[in-house]
Specification:
It is a single chain. It is built from 14 helices and no strands. With 310 residues, the protein is mainly α. The chain has one domain: Na+/H+ antiporter like fold.
Length: 310
């Protein structure tokens, strides 16, 4: 267990060093809000689709397609479990707080935090399975999450949902995989170089927002600690137990799903909170504190998954 903890811990430590570079750049004034907004769009619209599409650049394999189906079902399962916990265990008299706390529990940083770690630990296969989580994340965030934060089902736009960069990246990549279509190297090479930005850029963005967070108030908030307990430990451990009970022992598949399930609260928590006039300071504090705590919890949970699979 100790060896697995150290293996995962080293990878997580690399990500956190990058986060604290972003933190330092924000505190020194080197990184400005306008630059971060541009970086966020770059990651969302260019980098994420590139890493998803390149991870699917492989010869078609029935076994991998079946495993991808398991990853999709697993991703849907742990998101639904999060929703059940959110609506049964997380309540607050102030609806602006309740919406933020529930969103932060349901949605992990499946793109910004998980894909880089899946790539560093598991390579292209890890991103291949991580793509399934990203697809489910986007489908639920822009339907359930939109209604949760915006309070109106009419906000759902199915055209925007389908053409979301994360969903489109998976659809295009999956089509290439199923039909064994290989892009020419002159196209794949720049896409791979852009995909390589998926580790440093998101971490710098997270560091910037952490620099703006007020951690002390959320440290005293019991409900924030409850959300973190469920988000970082309870749900991923339940998911791991279910996968093992069902006989799923593919290490890459299980670890990729566990990484996504035990990641801190999604950065989108703050984006939606700001957009729909919810409790934005709480969202920034929740995302930042859960990110800090995950430096300990992620190596523990992912290390356990690593040890229990083969």
């Amino acid at each position: 267990m100790l060896d697995s903890f150290l293996i995962v811990g080293r990878q997580v430590a690399v990500l956190f060093i990058l986060i604290f570079v972003g933190f330092g750049c924000a505190k020194s004034g080197l990184l400005k809000k306008a630059a971060v907004d541009g970086m966020t769009d770059l990651v969302l619209y260019i980098v994420t689709p590139c890493i998803l599409i390149t991870s699917f650049q492989r010869e078609f394999d029935h076994k991998m397609l079946g495993a991808l189906g398991v990853a999709l079902l697993t991703a849907m399962g742990f998101h639904l479990l999060n929703i059940v916990f959110a609506h049964t265990l997380v309540r607050d008299r102030e609806k602006r707080r309740e919406s933020v706390l529930r969103f932060g529990l349901v949605f992990s940083n499946a793109g910004y935090m998980s894909l880089p770690l899946q790539n560093e630990m598991l390579g292209a296969d890890g991103v291949f399975f991580g793509a399934a989580v990203v697809a489910i994340f986007n489908l639920l965030a822009w339907t359930y999450g939109l209604v949760l934060m915006g309070g109106d089902i009419k906000l759902i736009n199915f055209r925007k949902l389908i053409f979301n960069p994360g969903v489109m990246g998976v659809i295009i990549g999956l089509a290439f995989f199923v039909f064994s279509f290989e892009l020419p190297s002159v196209i794949v090479s720049p896409m791979e170089k852009l995909a390589a930005l998926n580790t440093p850029l998101p971490m710098l963005i997270i560091g910037f927002y952490m620099a703006e967070a007020k951690i002390v108030p959320v440290l005293k908030d019991f409900k924030v600690h409850l959300v973190m307990l469920l988000r970082l430990l309870a749900v991923p451990l339940v998911m791991l137990a279910v996968l093992l009970a069902l006989g799923v022992r593919d290490r890459t598949l299980v670890v990729a799903c566990v990484i996504a399930a035990c990641a801190p609260s999604a950065a989108m928590t703050t984006m939606f909170a700001a957009k729909f006039n919810q409790d934005t300071p709480l969202s920034v504090g929740l995302v930042s504190l859960s990110t800090l705590v995950s430096i300990v919890t992620m190596p523990l949970v992912v290390g356990l998954a690593w040890d229990l699979t083969h």
